[in-house]
Amino acid sequence: MSEKRELLDEVETLFTPKRSLDFNYFLYVLLTLTFVGMFAFPKIYITEQIYFKSRDIAKLKVEYDTLKEEHKLISASVESIKFKNQILDTLF
């Protein structure tokens, strides 16, 4: 019976080898994570900067459109005042 158990233990160790976590494996994982981080960080940074710049651009566009409308209203008011001034000057 013990021979069967020994054979089963040997087969089990062959099919499921135990891997020890040594310094080389730790270094390999650390270098891999660093390598992935070197490619992921710039993409995240650039995407974030694009988002903030586009948000600022949208805000400035809204302000520009508002100022354009105010300019139209003020120009119409100035034209109205000029017209009234010219009419009143000719009446007197």
Low-pLDDT runs: none
SSE order, as H and E? HH
The largest sheet is: none
Q: Which structural class do you get from the secondary structure elements?
A: mainly alpha
Number of strands: 0
**Helical percentage:** over 70%
Q: pLDDT average, as an integer? A: 88
* Shape annotation: rod-shaped
Question: What is the beta-strand fraction?
Answer: under 5%
Report the C-alpha radius of gyration, rounded. Answer: 39 Å
- What is the number of helices? 2
Commentary on this structure:
This protein is mainly alpha-helical and about 90 residues long. The chain is built from two helices and no strands. It is rod-shaped, with a radius of gyration of 39 Å. The N and C termini lie far apart (about 130 Å). The model has no long low-confidence stretch (mean pLDDT about 90).
Short overview:
The protein is mostly helical. The chain has helices at 2-15, 23-91.
SSE diagram, text form:
Blueprint: H1 2-15, H2 23-91
Give the tags.
mainly alpha; 92 residues; single chain; 2 helices; 0% strand
